[in-house]
Please model this.
Amino acid sequence: MGICGGQGNKKINKPTLEQTKDQTGTTSNNENPGSSKQSRFVKQLTDFKVDPSIFVTLKKGDLLNSYKIDQVLGEGTYGKVSLVTQKGTGLQRAMKQIRKDKIVIEQKDNMIQEVSILKELDHPNIVNIYELYEDESFFYIITEYLSGGELFEKINEIDHFNETIAAGYMRKILEAVNYCHTRNIVHRDLKPENILFESKKAHSSLKIIDFGTAKQIDDSNKLSQRIGTPYYIAPEVINKRYDQKCDVWSCGVILFIMLCGYPPFNGQNQQELYQRIQSGIFSFEEPEWEDISADAKNLIKKMLVIDPEKRISASEALKHDWMIINQKDKKINSKSLEKLAKFHSQSKLKAAIMQLITTQIMSNQEKKKIQTQFKKIDVNKDGTLSREELLKCYREIYDDEMKCQEIVENLFQQADVNGSNQIDYTEFIVAFAKKEQLMAQNKLEKAFRLFDKDGNGQISKQELQEIMGGAQLSEVEWNNVFNELDLNGDGIVNFQEFTEMLIKNANEQE
Model:
């Protein structure tokens, strides 16, 4: 019987062929606080884009001033990954440490590309990046710490793994992949080791990691570098001419292994494996497939089509019958939608701080219910909310079409703080979350400490600029941003001023 069969589980074993990545292819105006200051601030910061990426800039100096290394999680040729604790907040992070003397220019470019891509991605099933450091010997990439283990480790811990669970996992993977593909980003190394769970809890969500080989492409160009992990590599990657569809093939291989416990293509060596992948011949004839549904097999067949032009897309895979049948119906909370309709925008600085709390301080568990609502509204599964998707929800609550239009238009004006003409995941959380979720005393303290880099109990303009460096503001604009925090105009911001500014705005929203 297969892993999904009714007579017990078959443990998933990792393929034994060497799985090292194949990369053989070609290839100062201080203002006194006053009643008119906020209007001047808003007017001067019209183009201030607010999203999580503004907090991810290259910082120089001793990382150990900010982080304590707890333990080494893994080591490789180019460096190691460690569990670290942010000293000011006590928050745990993962730190990838890369030796400068061990990497060539191309590898450095890949690292910079990974950070550049990852910091722009805002999806519940993609790992969050927080900081990038550099000193004389190393680069350091700080990301969220995912403690739940790899995909297949999680599956092997489940007593009665079935198709419904498998579909739930694959849905989250494909949603993240589809989000990337709508942005013309190809991951290129999707495999179980790069799919981690947030925690060991039973209903912990999964996230895709390791965008070190990811690439942004345009519709007219094909990629030519052979890269990836042999068992999961698509035939067109072996042939060195491919695009986003290679990720769908990798997902098909992952789904195949999830359901039966072994890969669809095997070989005594890499050459033989590649020949079998290029043949595209696999079988459902083994006993492990007896209890697997026809719908599951049909989806795998469509994901493992040799010709990428005929292969199903990530978006199409999410609409497949197997995905629909195994989806639990989640109703949208109408009361929460009514609250969302009353959301008022904040100044750009306040919006940025709320996003910092959302992405770096709120736990994934706290965001879980909000994430569920977001995904329910996101009908086309592109990882963002359009006007039409929100209108559809409000039409189920109100009969008045004009009222629905006004609510959605106002929501976009208030919540779309990066001007993308969509409501992104983090923007939705900030607008949807309860005040006590975002504004709890302990969260405000941690947010303050993230800004207070030297730990002296005060925030300087320089510290504000350092943590929000991605905002790329002029000196005059930085002065205006800082002055909104510096309520008494003394050139420094203490915790009382910090909280007063945030709580005042939150109270005005109620």
In short: The chain is about 40% helix and 10% strand. Residues 53-144 form a domain with the Phosphorylase Kinase; domain 1 fold (CATH 3.30.200.20). The first strand starts at residue 58 and ends at 60.
